[in-house]
Design goal:
single chain; mainly alpha; two-stranded antiparallel sheet; about 5% strand; elongated
Length: about 550
């Protein structure tokens, strides 16, 4: 038996060191229970060690002692039996246990455990408020807070045992707290329901999620401004209906996406502001008769104030719909950017050259170099829009107040946020690893008579009504097409054959460079206008010309 005993003793001693000797040497009113809770984490990996240590937890001075195999088996069996007997925290009126099928179908802890930090934060605020209002003692408050600290530590260390039979994040944390500290843990749910608890958690999580999205939006804006600055003076064809339209400075085009992202950020700021009100203390739907202070918990959690109506507080998810809608618009903007860049990477355009670091190949065609990241950005936009649609349909026919249907809001919420952040981040990576094929772009500029509208402006300067100018330029384009040349290549006498109003100065309006220089309206693609736009964004984003140049 000596080898077996030595092996067991070493395992016990190793685990004691891992727990920290303070749990043994510095007992407090809650330390034995904390020690027991830690031991409950062991059965899956070290059942014999767990049983041995559980059998000695009440006699802390002895770290290990000789234990018979029969005694170890008995403790292990007793622990399993106790686990099977656990009654739901809400199970007082029930005579039968929930069936395995219903339990599996109803659980949400497999995904809502993502809310653990926010759930514990809300519980800390609630416990402090209960003590301040005289609903729990200061001693019980401290025991609860220490227990919550220990649970958070065990979750972050990967030691916490998530139990499906405890349904969700809230019941897992509360039941673990009661296991850990006993009677004081049972007082935490005073003047609180899971209905207000979950929506408090979700609002806290959404606030942080919005801050993360805003950070990614800002980084993409910086990256696009950087790309624009590096390509000063580069003219590209502008398109409407996917047909050649007018010349554009590529800086102007890139800054268009920066503007769209800024409105996306504005929507998210507005959403954050509207959601920053506390539902905590609304309880199930009607509030409570206990003397709680909802204003103090709102302040502790960083909310502007408590929500005015307890029914509204627990039952509506319009703040989620607003966030998912804002995310969907972000995704659509990114999808449009992705579409443009994917097309520009094609052989037919060849305007954009992605580096190997952001490209993929084909399993069968050796020559392929695909801009897959942006194709996936385009594709994942459908997923984000689908998340919004899911929650819209989820909420559309719910009676007041809370309904269990709302459990289904979290997976689309989490997916929408994580997908949008991933789309933003890979767009940043892509924008930092592309270059414009200036030679290819320059060769493409003559096609499409991009200076036709500028010629019409020339005729307006000559006093010709715009509709008449439009007709004259249309005939001039037809003449150029018949001669297979550009407008700027038509001799003056041939232009005058279309209309005698043309004079030598018309050539100052023709050609893409001249056309670009004629744009002067606020926000236009003229060089001076774009320079002002770029300077605005450099200042707004905290960039300097020196750094970007």
């Amino acid at each position: 038996l000596l080898p077996s005993f030595l092996s067991l003793s070493l395992l016990v001693l190793s685990f004691c060191v891992r727990l920290g000797m303070e749990a043994l040497l510095c007992p407090s009113p809650f330390s034995p229970r904390i020690f027991q809770h830690k031991l409950l984490l062991l059965p899956q990996r070290h059942p014999l060690v767990a049983a041995a240590m559980l059998s000695r937890v009440r006699s802390l001075p002895a770290i290990c002692s000789i234990v018979s195999v029969g005694e170890l088996a008995k403790h292990e069996e007793a622990a399993e039996e106790e686990k099977a007997k656990e009654v739901k925290l809400w199970g007082g009126r029930f005579k039968e246990r929930v069936s395995a099928a219903v339990e599996k179908f109803s659980q949400s802890v497999s995904y809502d455990r993502k809310l653990y930090k926010h759930d514990i934060r809300g519980s800390r605020a609630h416990a402090r408020m209960l003590a301040a209002q005289g609903l729990v003692t200061v001693e019980d408050r401290d025991i609860i807070l220490n227990g919550l600290d220990e649970i958070e530590r065990s979750i972050e260390a990967g030691e916490f045992v998530w139990r499906q039979d405890r349904e969700d994040i809230h019941m897992n944390v509360e039941a673990a707290l009661i296991d850990l500290v006993g009677e004081p843990g049972k007082k935490l749910h005073t003047a609180r329901s899971r209905n207000d608890q979950v929506v408090t958690d979700v609002r806290l999580w959404c606030r942080e999620a919005i801050d993360r999205i805003l950070g990614s939006i800002r980084r993409l804006q910086v990256s696009l401004v950087d790309l624009a600055t590096k390509n000063k003076g580069l003219i590209v064809p502008g398109y409407t209906h996917l047909q050649r339209a007018q010349p554009l400075l590529v800086q102007h085009l890139l800054l268009a996406y920066v503007e769209q992202l800024e409105r996306d950020a504005g929507r998210l700021f507005d959403c954050r502001s509207r959601m920053n009100y506390s539902p905590l203390g609304s309880c199930a739907l009607a509030g409570t008769g206990l003397p709680i202070d909802r204003f103090s918990t709102a302040e502790m959690l960083g909310f502007n104030a408590p929500l005015r109506n307890s029914i509204d507080a627990v039952s509506d998810r319009d703040f989620l719909l607003e966030l998912l809608s804002a995310n969907s618009i972000v995704a659509v903007h990114l999808s449009r950017l992705a579409e443009e860049w994917v097309v520009w990477c094609s052989e037919e355009f060849g305007f954009l050259i992605p580096s190997d670091a952001i490209s993929t190949g084909s399993s069968i065609m050796p020559q392929k170099k695909n801009p897959d990241p942006m194709e996936l950005v385009r594709g994942k936009s459908a997923r984000v829009i689908g998340d919004l649609t899911t929650v819209l349909v989820l909420c559309k026919a719910l009676p007041q107040a809370y309904n269990r249907d709302l459990q289904e809001d979290k997976e689309p919420l989490f997916d929408s946020v994580e997908t949008v952040i991933a789309m933003l981040d890979v767009s940043i990576e892509f924008s930092q690893n592309i270059s414009f094929n200036k030679e290819r772009i320059l060769k493409s500029l003559p096609a499409g008579h991009l200076d036709a509208t500028t010629m019409a402006d020339y005729l307006v300067y000559k006093g010709i009504p715009f509709r008449t100018s439009h007709d004259i330029v249309g005939k001039s384009v037809a003449l150029a097409l018949s001669k297979n040349c550009q407008l700027s290549e038509l001799p003056l006498h041939e232009l005058q054959s279309v209309d005698p109003v043309f004079e030598e100065d018309v050539f100052g309006f023709l050609g893409v460079e001249n056309a670009i220089n004629k744009f002067t309206s606020y926000g236009s693609t003229g060089a001076e206008c774009v320079s002002k736009q770029l300077a605005f964004w450099q200042e707004r984003l905290g960039l300097t010309r020196k750094r970007l140049e």
